[in-house]
Design a protein that fits this description.
Helix content is 59%, strand content 16%. By secondary structure, it is of the alpha+beta class. Strand 3 (92-97) and strand 4 form a beta hairpin. Mean pLDDT is 75; it is low at 1-15.
Length: 187
């Protein structure tokens, strides 16, 4: 019982962290729209290299929708917003604009835009991905418990019904069957 409580509490804290992550994504999206883009998508994930797992990197991807802004200006604006607003350390910022994706390394952004505001690099994409995994694990556990709670009475009722049928004499079972399947025969 203690283990289940601890897992539930871990999931609750992860849920709160995931909620904060979603709020930060929404905030960055709002800032991008305020900067002149028609719409923007903000995503985070890991780029895995199966042959060299130690080289896996955290990637933030921004998808921008706006047809009239110059491509370089659009990317610079988006990079500045992410750099100053997104509370997550990343290795690569991928910006997709007008069908073209450009990847910008963190070090280049640091040289170009200067240091990030305090506290924005305290967590990484991997930290948030682990939080999402915890939430999914807790949700799966809760679903399993609910399934067991619902399934247990159903199994008991089915077994009880089968036992009652097994206890009836053969002629009684046939009479019950005939009564339920062919009402005109029982008359």
């Amino acid at each position: 019982m203690l283990a289940a409580t601890l897992i539930l509490l871990t999931g609750c804290s992860s849920t709160a962290e995931s909620g904060e992550l979603l709020k930060s994504f929404a905030s960055v999206r709002s800032e991008l729209v305020a900067a002149g883009f028609d719409d923007a998508g903000v995503h985070a994930g890991r780029k895995e290299y199966f042959e060299h797992l130690e080289e896996s990197v955290d990637v933030v991807t921004i998808v921008l929708l706006h047809d009239t802004m110059n491509g370089d200006l659009a990317r610079k604006t988006a990079a500045t917003v992410v750099w100053n607003e997104l509370p997550m350390k990343f290795d690569i910022l991928a910006i997709e604009y007008q069908g073209e994706t450009r990847e910008i390394e963190y070090e280049w952004l640091a040289n170009e835009l200067g240091p990030r505001p305090a506290g924005l690099d305290d967590t990484s994409v991997g930290d948030h991905m682990a939080g999402v995994g915890n939430v999914l694990m807790v949700a799966g556990g809760i679903a399993l418990v609910v399934l067991l709670i619902v399934a247990a009475p159903v199994v008991v009722l089915i077994r009880r019904n089968l036992r009652k049928k097994a206890q009836l004499p053969k002629s009684g079972r046939e009479a019950l069957r005939d009564e339920h399947t062919c009402p005109e025969r029982s008359k």
